[in-house]
Amino acid sequence: MSVITKRGDDGWTDLMFGKRSPKSAPRLEAYGTVDELNSALGAARAAGVSAPTEEKIDGVQARLVGLMGELATLEEDLPAYDEKGYARVRPEDVSWLEEIAGSMEEECSIRFQGWARPGRDASLASALIDLARAVCRRAERRVAVLRERNELSNISSALFLNRLSDLLWILARYEALSKSQP
Length: 182
Known about the structure:
This protein is mainly α. It has 6 helices and 2 strands, in the order ββαααααα. It has a two-stranded antiparallel ribbon. A hairpin with a 5-residue loop joins strand 1 (12-14) and strand 2 (20-22). Helix 1 (26-46) runs antiparallel to helix 5 and helix 5 packs antiparallel against helix 6. It is globular, with a radius of gyration of 17 Å.
């Protein structure tokens, strides 16, 4: 099947399970922003992050693919989504982020001491992770809209993005510290 389908020419797009939605719908804004987040993390990876950070980003990206699929599925179709075995964000994914963040805070003595100025440390990887963090916060706001509209029941999706933005702040500081050490 060609990538060019022309099915979106009328301002509508396909969701999972044959449903269609206007491209301006909050659901599309949510999963489009998660897609943008995933791409920003890819740019950070390509900028040459450290091996520990790359491993963490890879795990995050795998979970973001599941989140995009979940967001591209209407609530009424989630049983079919689950039946097909597609990934969703679960409470253990939120715990995974919390464990990584807590461990890095402790091991690297990274604590919030005021807002960072992305790029100040001349680390492209750190600045790109900060960019991904900002996109993550926007994705979290888009998911909050779906929750307010009762169009998303999985609280783990919102919690995941909230914890991820915190972890990305930590990872950006970690990369800046890694660059400054010989």
